[in-house]
């Protein structure tokens, strides 16, 4: 049974121009230990899908249909009073954000931020929380974690901050990790290190990974399956190699050809044509 | 124009034909002529928060004076000596005596203590109240925001002194009334400042990250939202102390603040102004001067803190 199932999720948003459908019949099925890439252009609904899964839709947006099942339970209605089950956040599903520079509290030491949620839930003492933070920071490859835990975000480099974010997301041992373009803001070498970290995580810990990006190269390196989104709909889904080798949809084909490859010439008839 | 001012000094110091090669070598080695005349001050300012230091030193000196002064000036500030009124400064009375023969220095020191304590304490309650209400309004929005901010509008629609005077009038004068009156009015400024900060913070990604990791709303508010807004509140608190000193002194001046015969700068000024015509300027000068100095120091500290307390990214 899949650990996370998004079943024909439909989300509307009330804007100035009236009601608009931003997610239309989106279905995703993620097995434990499976890394899935969710790709698509800006505004295609990738981030909205992630936000819906965590029950963090922006004001005005609401789920009008479908279910989100975590471990077989519909989290949209299993919370107190039939509302979204917020207990799932952190312990069941966690999220790594795009921009580590702004996703950390600037006035709190990173060690405390990593264990803040877990300390609250389990009532850890300061000492216990610090030790746990050091352990987690060590596990995501931060050198000298004991000293780093006492630093503020501005004292850390971008790659270091993203590792801190990942450590914080993993602190409560979630079973699914949502990643919202976590390597976009990093330079290429750091990006490779962070991807390595993700790879070992889903392999060793059996973590389900839903990886949102518009960078197909990253998906190719990390994921085993891929879903392609366009205009709030999933237009194609399949095993990575099959989709890459033989895309069924015209949109996927153009998306693939729009990615420059080092072994081929640049074919710029793809997506660029449409925007012109 | 700076060229002629510096070179005469240089030649003047070395004397005619003293060590001209060194002077010439010095000017020639500098590539840009403008760089030669940059004052060392801006660099020093950048490294040290000069405003904060100057303000802290002035305020610290005044607080020290008020704290330990009464240990040396042992005259009872309220002891009258009607045979020795308007005495000029002497060994016994360094600042002379007032219209009832009371020692002006002793009254100045004791009065300052009262004013500063009231002004500082009267900042704490509005600060806490305003921060809590402002962050609630900003974070939850909707009806919470509407209720709190309309309440703030109502309070601030009244002219400040009219409202304070009415409250003091109703409750009778004294320190307690001053605290209540100031607290009831000045939380509004803190609430507005904090609400604005929270509106910005609420949309920040690290707050989303907190929610995504399952942190409870009270914890997000107390550990992530409020610590990020507190610096703005503290900066405003510095100018608020100044305002409070003004309020206390003004109320006392009008006879609605500190109850006589307890000494206080406002009353001293009120008493003193009646005798300005007879040439006794000292009575109004010293407390007036002290109010200006303390306000100036607090303003400098507020400015200095603005530069220091900005959260770094």
How would you describe this protein?
The complex is a heterodimer of chains A (276) and B (313). In chain A, 35% of the residues lie in helices and 26% in strands. With 276 residues, chain A is of the alpha/beta class. Chain A folds into two domains: 1-92 and 175-261, Rossmann fold, CATH 3.40.50.300; 102-171, no CATH class. In chain A, helix 2 (110-122) packs parallel to helix 5 and helix 3 (126-139) crosses helix 5 (158-170). The longest helix of chain A has 18 residues, at 188-205. In chain A, 43% of the residues are buried. Chain B is an all-alpha fold. Chain B has a domain at 50-58 and 113-309: MetI-like (MetI-like fold), CATH 1.10.3720.10. Chain B is 73% helix and 0% strand. Chain B has helices at residues 2-14, 20-29, 41-47, 50-72, 104-140, 142-157, 160-171, 175-202, 205-212, 217-253, 265-273, 282-309. In chain B, helix 5 runs antiparallel to helix 6 and helix 11 packs antiparallel against helix 12. Mean pLDDT of chain B is 76; it is low at 1-33. Chain A: This is ABC transporter domain-containing protein. Chain A: Residues 4-256 form the ABC transporter domain. Chain A: Its main location: membrane. Chain A: It comes from Brevibacterium permense.
Characteristic key phrases:
heterodimer; A: 276 residues; alpha/beta; Rossmann fold; 6-stranded mixed β-sheet; 4-stranded antiparallel β-sheet; 10 strands; globular; B: 313 residues; mainly alpha; MetI-like fold; 12 helices; elongated; disordered N terminus; ABC transporter domain-containing protein (chain A); transport (chain A); cell membrane (chain A); membrane (chain A); ABC_transporter-like_ATP-bd (chain A)
